[in-house]
Amino acid sequence: MSSVTDTMNVFADLQSEPPGDLRLRIDRAVTDALARAGTPPAPPRLARALAHATQPGGARIRPTILLSVALACGDDRPALADAAAAALELIHCASLVHDDLPCFDDAATRRGKPAVHRAFSEPLAVLTGDALIVLGFELLARAAAEAPERCAPLVATLARQTGMPDGICAGQGWESETQVDLSAYHRAKTGALFVAATRMGAIAAGQPPDPWDELGARIGEAFQVADDLRDAVMSAEDLGKPVGQDPLHDRPNAVTALGVEGATQRLKDILAGVVASIPSCPGEARLAAMVRWQAERLVPQPHARSRA
Amino acid sequence: MSSVTDTMNVFADLQSEPPGDLRLRIDRAVTDALARAGTPPAPPRLARALAHATQPGGARIRPTILLSVALACGDDRPALADAAAAALELIHCASLVHDDLPCFDDAATRRGKPAVHRAFSEPLAVLTGDALIVLGFELLARAAAEAPERCAPLVATLARQTGMPDGICAGQGWESETQVDLSAYHRAKTGALFVAATRMGAIAAGQPPDPWDELGARIGEAFQVADDLRDAVMSAEDLGKPVGQDPLHDRPNAVTALGVEGATQRLKDILAGVVASIPSCPGEARLAAMVRWQAERLVPQPHARSRA
C-alpha cells in the first residue's frame, strides 16, 4: 500500500498535468471502432446515432483510469489496453443513451447536445445502446487475437460489471424495486464500471486483477458522492444535462442524506482512501498522480476553488 | 457438398425424430445462466423479467442448429457448445424483448404470454434486453476458460452477427431508413443469427467457420420467407404474437411481393438448396436430417400437410 503522505508529494508536481496522451489513445480507439461499425452497408442513421452518442465524448474518466492502471502494470499490449478502454467507454455511453430514454429520465440533453432519442428517435436510441454494448465486446475479441489468454478474463469482467446480478444493468434495475438494497444499488449503479476499469487495466497488461478491486470500488464511491454534489450545486447549463433528477425520481442521494457540507467532507474522506488503496506496482507514483488529478476534477468547482 | 438425393434418403428415416437431447442441453444451459444472473443481490423484478423473456422459450431453432453443427464437427467441447447455444438464444430473446417495445412493434404478447414491457414495465423491458445481451457474452467467456483460443472467435462472431454494420441491430436499424438496402436488410435482420449459429457451432467444436457461412445464410433466407408466410396465413392466437405487422409498418415481405403460392414455392426452392449447402464433415448425415427436420417445421401447417 502507498503511504498517503509520500504520494501527496508526488502530486505536488504532477496534479495539474492533463492526461493528453491517454485522451488521444482513447479517442483514436473509439473513432476506429465507430468507423468499422459505420462501414457500408450499415444503415446510415443508426451509424450517425452511434457517433452522436460517443463523440466528442465527456471526460472519459473510466477509460483514463483503465489505461492508467495498464501503464502502472507495464502496458505490454498497448493495442489491447486501448481496445479495453474504448470498450468500457462504449458500454458507459450505451448506458447513458438508455438512461436518457423517455421511460427512464426522459432527458432532453446530454453532454450539451440533444439526447439521442431527441436528435434521432426513440427506436434508434434503443438500437444505439444495444449496438454500443455489442461493439464493446467485439472490440475486446478483435484485439485479444494477439493475446488469446486475456480474452476470456476481459470479456467476463466487462460483462460482470455491466450485466446481472452485479453490473450497471442491475444498478438501474434497483430503481424499479420498492425495497432497495442500498449498498448493492450504489455498488452496481456507479461502482461497477470503475471496478471494471481497474480490473481490465490490469488484465490487459497481463497482471492479476484482484488486487485492483478496492481502488476501483473506492473511486466509484467517490464518483457517486461527487455526482450527487454536482447535481445539487451546479446548473443544467454547466453540466449539459438535467439536474435534480434524483429527488424527482426519489432515488437515494448523498446530498439528501448528508447535506452539501456533509457530502463534501465525505468525498474528501473517500478520496484520501482512494490513493491509499493503490497496490504496489512499477508505475505506482504516476498512477497516484493520475488518480489525484481525476479526484480533483470530481470535487464540484466551487469546492475545488475553496481547497486551493 | 452433399447430393440432395442421397440426403433425402437419410431423411426418410430420421425426419420425424425430434431433437429432444439437444433441447435438454439448451434448456439446461439457459436455466444455469439465468440462475447465476438472478443470484442475490440481483434486483428481484429484473431477475424475474429475465426468466419471463427466456423461459419456457420458443422453438429454440438457432441454438438447435448451433449444436447440430457442433455435433457434426465432433463436439469435442460440449460445455462450450452448450454455452454458445445458450448465448445465441439469449441474444435472440433480447432482440424479441426490444422489438416488442412500444416504440417498435408495441406488441402485447409474445410466445403466448404478455410481452415483457406489459408483464413488468417499459424500463424493465429495456434493461432485460440489455442484460440478456451482456449475459450472452459472459457465458461465452466463462465457458471458454477451458479452450481459451476459441474465446475470441466465438465472441467476435456473436458480436458481428448481433451489432453494426452486419448484425440484427443493423437489420432493425434499416427500418428507420427511408431508402432501404433490401439485401442488406434481410441478411442482417433475419440471416445474421443463423450465420452465427452455423459459424459458432463449428468454432465451439474447434473447426474453421468459413465453410459454414452458406448453410447459415440459406437457413436464414428460408426462415424469413417462412415467417412471412406464417404471418400471412396463421392467426395471432396460433402464433402467440400479433400478425400483419409487416404491412402495418410498411416492411418488405415475401408474401406481399410473391403472393402465398409464390412464397411457398420460393421456400421449397430455398430448402432444397439448404440441404445441398452442408459442408462435408463426419456428422453430415445426421446434420442433414436435423436441418430437414427444422425445415419441415418452417413450412406453415396447411402447406406442410399438403406436402405429406
Automatic annotation (TrEMBL), chains A, B:
This is Geranylgeranyl diphosphate synthase. Gene3D superfamilies: Farnesyl Diphosphate Synthase. The lineage of its organism: Bacteria, Pseudomonadati, Pseudomonadota, Alphaproteobacteria, Rhodobacterales. Its EC number is 2.5.1.29. Belongs to the FPP/GGPP synthase family. It catalyses: isopentenyl diphosphate + (2E,6E)-farnesyl diphosphate = (2E,6E,10E)-geranylgeranyl diphosphate + diphosphate. One of its GO terms (molecular function) is geranylgeranyl diphosphate synthase activity. PANTHER family: FARNESYL DIPHOSPHATE SYNTHASE (PTHR43281:SF1). Pathway: Isoprenoid biosynthesis; geranylgeranyl diphosphate biosynthesis; geranylgeranyl diphosphate from farnesyl diphosphate and isopentenyl diphosphate: step 1/1. The keyword Metal-binding applies. It comes from Limimaricola pyoseonensis. Keywords: Carotenoid biosynthesis, Chlorophyll biosynthesis, Isoprene biosynthesis, Magnesium, Metal-binding, Photosynthesis, Transferase. GO terms for biological process: carotenoid biosynthetic process; chlorophyll biosynthetic process; photosynthesis. Catalyzes the condensation of farnesyl diphosphate (FPP) and isopentenyl diphosphate (IPP) to yield geranylgeranyl diphosphate (GGPP) needed for biosynthesis of carotenoids and diterpenes. Its cofactor is Mg(2+).
